[in-house]
Amino acid sequence: MANTDDKPALKITLEDLNKVEVAKPGAVMAAGAAAAAGARQYGNISSSIAEAPVVEEGKSNFLLQGWFYLGSAGLVGALIGWGIAEPLFVDGQGATMANRLLIPSVVAFMCMGFGVSESVVERSPRKAVLRGLMSLGLGAVGGFIFDIVANIFFAIAVGIVVELGVHTNRNPAFWIARGLAWMVFGVAGGIIYGAVDKSGKKIRYGILGGVIGAGLGGMIFDPIAMATKIGGPSRGIGFALFGLATGVAMGIVESALKDRWLYVAAGPLAGKQFILYKPVTVIGSSQQSDIYLFKDASIQPQHASIELRGAQTFLHSDAQVYVSGQPARHRALNSGDLIQIGKYAFHFRERHRK
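Below the sequence we write its predicted structure tokens.
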């Protein structure tokens, strides 16, 4: 017996299917936006993780480049050191104790500038104070020690150029002699720059850049003094350019020789690069972190770390981190990976090894 409650079967013909219209992606997005105005939304699996625009490498802010902030720090530090010691300096008095304070003072404050520069750029006042005090103390001691060494080098170099028939500082050979002697001060700057960050590789890069920059600064010192002919101010100009050249060269060298680094693609420091010097680099909201991330409450004090293990690089994290759009806790990094931590995004880069 047939069931009287049975309903007729639903039939769909080809003609019915042809009448169906598929909504375009733009219409779906528009509908979602309209719904957001009148209903609470909880996201979806296709939502973008990073809301901030991603900056491609090559569009760097020059204010965040090492050559710029190290050069500026060297210039300002040298001027401060000169300004403190210059009132005690007496022309024509030779190597008196007061006169001997001039170059060590310039070197000490120049080193302090190098020590605090990156922390200032990162907006980490605590780190800047600690590194500033450490680098100033080391620079003061190193300034006197390296001044003695530089004078020995200078005496030898001058003796050689005199034997070659040079008897005036108007001769370029004399300028070269001073430049060679002042390379010693570049060594001091490089050592202290890396020492305050506890990085042997940074010390090596700093020394190489410091030697190049200080040598150039030393060679232009006498021509500037002869051109200005105004005693103290001419020394101030010469030392300022000496500090500038040393810092710029240090920044250029460490950027040219870097092998692994993070380029900030989004966030308050977009356009800056962090060179990975240490075996383990800590990233977090604590000012004690190697990479200090500020203005983001979602970032933990020690949010993640990057480990250099031979030729490989690993990311470790106990908090939320995305690598190329995927959640990551422990992962080997490849050049080009996009690391996202809060509102910050980093391109991981490594130089290809032959």
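Residues 1-5, 22-52 have pLDDT under 50 and may be disordered.
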